[in-house]
Amino acid sequence: MKKNLSIILFLCLIFTLFSTGCSSGGAAQIDNNNPGAQNSTAAGAGDADTGPAQSGSNNPETQSGSATGSGNADKGTSQPEKNNNPATQINSATGSEDAEIDLTILGSTMLSAQLSNIRSNLSDYLGKTIKISGTYSSFYYEKTEKVYHNIITYMDQTMCCSEGMEFVWNGDHKYPDDYPDEGSAITIIGELGSYEELGIRYCYLAVDEIIVP
């Protein structure tokens, strides 16, 4: 009787161990077949192996900084920043031996800004020699009964708005015989002066020569 009881207990123990082993194996299979668990594991491995390197190489800011740093190290000096102040540029780089201020070297936008700066700060420029290129234009003003001569640097397509500067040709010159044709390309160099007329102050260039290409 005792022998039979021992056999039954032994079989129960084996059954219990077998059942526990199956349960553990089933849990492992469920975890391995879980897409979320698989993705998390794969992503973790990828980040650990290649994450930092890929992140650095694919970051435009990081790449740009590295390339710039290498370039500066090779050249030994960095590129200076451009000075976009028209007043500073024009006074520091005249580009002409005959003029203190050479407006002929400026593009249309910078030229417009510089002309505006001259008119706004006229006292700072009076007496300076200025070189400018454009087209010749003249008009008669009935109120003063005078002919005015101008060099036009900009004219819009409608021909109603223009920008430029008045000039006076020193010496005895007869209009219109001695003057260029209307719309002719000209270059002038003259000293900046001013006068007041009808309660308004105007600036002009006193020139000794009108250069027609």
Give a description of the structure:
The protein is globular and about 135 Å long. The chain is built from seven helices and six strands, in the order αααααβααβββββ. The protein starts with a helix and ends with a strand. The protein has helices at 2-32, 35-49, 51-58, 60-75, 86-92, 108-120, 122-125; strands at 101-102, 129-141, 146-155, 162-169, 185-197, 200-211. Strand 3 (146-155) and strand 4 form a beta hairpin. The longest helix is centred in the N-terminal third of the chain and has 31 residues, at 2-32.
Determine the fraction of residues in helical runs and give it as a percent range: 40-55%
CATH class of the largest domain: Mainly Beta
CATH superfamily of the largest domain: Nucleic acid-binding proteins
**What Rg do the Cα atoms give?**
43 Å
Number of helices: 7
CATH topology of the largest domain: OB fold (Dihydrolipoamide Acetyltransferase, E2P)
Query: Could you tell me how far the N terminus lies from the C terminus, measured between alpha carbons in angstroms?
Result: 134 Å
Q: Mind telling me which CATH architecture of the largest domain this is?
A: Beta Barrel
Beta-strand percent range? 25-35%
